[in-house]
Specification:
With 408 residues, this protein is of the alpha+beta class. The chain is built from nine helices and 21 strands. It is 25% helix and 26% strand. The protein has a six-stranded mixed sheet with strand order 7-8-19-11-21-9. Strands 10-20-12-18 form a four-stranded antiparallel sheet. A three-stranded antiparallel sheet has the order 1-2-3. Bound molecules: fe (ii) ion (FE2). Fe (ii) ion binds at residues 210, 219, 221, 360.
């Protein structure tokens, strides 16, 4: 079957078979051969025709201003063409054909935000003792390897690469830049695009407690932002100090535990707001939110847990005592051996983790007996999800054409 119908995107869809078309009020119901069903509103079908001034053939973006839609716009005829495409005519005199495979991808929910992304896998210290690990050089060169790495990053919220080269030279970027460039656009902050974590940095107005030998309890970075960075990548250039092990725990597991076992603590953490406040001389970032921000249904979990920048209770004074006790309990659990894993950083290791889900920290170390130099960067959820969807779509289309012998 040959695709002769443009779709409102630039993707390729296997041809699908529509068996029944039925009109019901303002909807057209489509039943597909595989049992899936789509209820398509008349106006949505009008927007979905790539011609006739509703969807631009060049950009495949909608061009129909809803304010210009006639109140009485409706489908006047709908039928299947001989090749199975859906032929639709509208009361405004327009008509067009719609790809049945494209309609089928909507019927089977492949248009949703979570489509082409792996399911979340909540983990504890009994799931693994070190992050799922991949060969960094392979990820830098192969798309299948990059997909496997990003699958782990998105499902577990953490994955590690080994053998990532360090400092670049000439036109060759450093390893961390190379990895993030394979994914998307880095998120720069007042700490820079790519920043250092090194104990000897003590004279920078953007300095933080990360640049010391102090223990860092379980935390998430930059809760001072309306939307904290989605993912964080830490790349080890050098580590010759004893101690300083990295500590990680899955905040999603801690949240699930609290919801089931300690509902009063869970209620306080999900509803009582704190002002998180960046204390730099040059910047004034602030945001108020709960330590466990569940967001809207379907949106990613956002944990705001960084006590160095948790500044003021933003709640009725009567709630402050239980808010503090809940915060204490949350940080206790983040470092609890049931949830927390610990592992050393070796030169060439790059750990990527969901900064809004996974709590990270480190053991104390003595900066006087060696060098511990990490390089860090952020990249938002949007960039990682977009890259993974593209890789997964490509992967799936290869398998579809191999197994089904059908191309659109
Ligand atoms: Fe941090």
């Amino acid at each position: 079957m040959t695709n002769t119908v443009d779709t409102p995107d630039f993707y390729t869809y296997p041809w699908a078979t529509i068996e029944y078309v039925e009109r019901s009020g303002e909807f057209i119901t489509l039943d597909f051969k595989d049992g899936s069903r789509l209820q398509a509103h008349d106006w949505w079908l009008r927007e979905s025709v790539v011609t006739d001034g509703a969807c631009d053939p060049t950009t495949r973006e909608g061009t129909l201003d809803p304010a210009d839609i006639a109140d009485d716009l409706q489908v006047t005829s709908v039928e299947l063409d001989s090749d199975g495409a859906l032929a639709v005519a509208f009361s405004d005199g327009t008509a067009g054909r719609i790809h049945p495979g494209w309609l089928h991808h909507v019927a089977t929910h492949r248009h949703r935000v979570d489509s082409h992304l792996p399911p979340i896998k909540v983990w504890t210290a009994s799931t693994f003792s070190e992050p799922p690990t991949f060969n960094g050089r392979a990820v830098l060169s192969g798309d299948e390897e990059l997909k496997a790495f990003l699958d782990a990053v998105c499902s577990y919220g953490i994955a590690r690469l080994t053998k990532v080269p360090g400092e670049g030279s000439g036109s060759v970027p450093e390893g961390l830049a190379s990895v993030t460039d394979r994914i998307g656009v880095r998120r720069s902050t007042n700490f820079g695009d790519i920043w250092n974590v090194k104990a000897e940095i003590r004279d920078n107005s953007e300095n933080s407690s990360a640049n010391s030998g102090l223990r860092l309890g379980p935390h998430t970075d930059l809760p001072t932002r309306e939307t904290p960075p989605g993912f964080q990548l830490l790349h080890c250039w050098e580590n010759s100090v004893p101690g300083g092990w990295s500590r990680m725990s899955d905040g999603a597991a801690v949240v699930a535990y609290l919801k089931a076992e300690e509902p009063d603590v869970y209620q306080a953490l999900t509803t009582l707001n704190w002002v998180f406040f960046n204390r730099s001389r040059e910047h004034d970032h602030r945001w108020s939110g709960p330590m466990i921000d569940l967001g809207l249904p379907g949106s990613p979990l956002t944990i705001r847990a960084f006590y160095p920048v948790r500044a003021f209770p933003d709640m009725d004074p009567v709630d402050v005592p239980r808010a503090y006790r809940a915060a204490k309990r949350f940080h206790q659990l983040g470092a609890d051996p049931r949830f927390e894993i610990g592992y050393p950083f070796r030169a060439g290791d790059l750990v990527a983790f969901d900064n809004r889900r996974v709590l990270h920290g480190r053991d104390a170390f003595d900066p006087g007996v060696g060098v511990r130099h990490l390089r860090g960067s952020y990249i938002d959820h949007d960039e990682v999800y977009s890259r993974l969807r593209v890789l997964t779509r490509h992967h799936e289309s290869q398998h579809q054409s191999f197994f089904e012998g059908v191309s659109a």
